[in-house]
Amino acid sequence: MSASDQDEALNAPIPEPELNGLTPRQARAASVAVASVLLAAMAVLLMVRLAQRTSVLVVGVYGLAMILCGVVIELSRHGRTRLGIWLLGAGLAAALGADWLLLP
Q: What integer pLDDT is reported at residue 3 of this predicted model?
């Protein structure tokens, strides 16, 4: 190797390692896990809210949120992870907003 080849080798940029996200299988598993935890949290929140005040509206809001969590689990199992996560975020924000606005 000549001196110029050695200089080029020393001054060559070091390649950055690729930072990839989760694999599709890992993303599906994470989505199912998050939706399952939120489903359990909604069930506990439903029981707490029903203990405070019995109302059909309380059951409706939290029941729909729990159904949404189940739909997200099924979407993730069938490979629609991104759609499921967007629905989960929007649906739970709507449920908590409805709780804050509609329920006394």
A: 64
**Residue 32 CA to its chain's centroid (Å):** 8
Indicate the residue type of 52: Q
CA 24, 67, 49: angle at the middle one, nearest 5?
125
SS3 54: coil
Which of 5-14, 39-48, 65-74 is the least confident region? 5-14
Q: What global pTM score does this model have? A: 0.73
Q: How far is CA 36 from CA 26, 41, 50, 73, 93, in A?
A: 15, 9, 21, 7, 17
Token output for 31: 């989505």
Say how many C-beta atoms besides its own lie within 10 A of residue 58's C-beta: 20
Domain ranges of the chain: 22-102
19 band by pLDDT with thresholds 50, 70 and 90: low
In terms of Cβ atoms closer than 10 Å to its own Cβ (0-12, 13-18, 19+), residue 56 is exposed
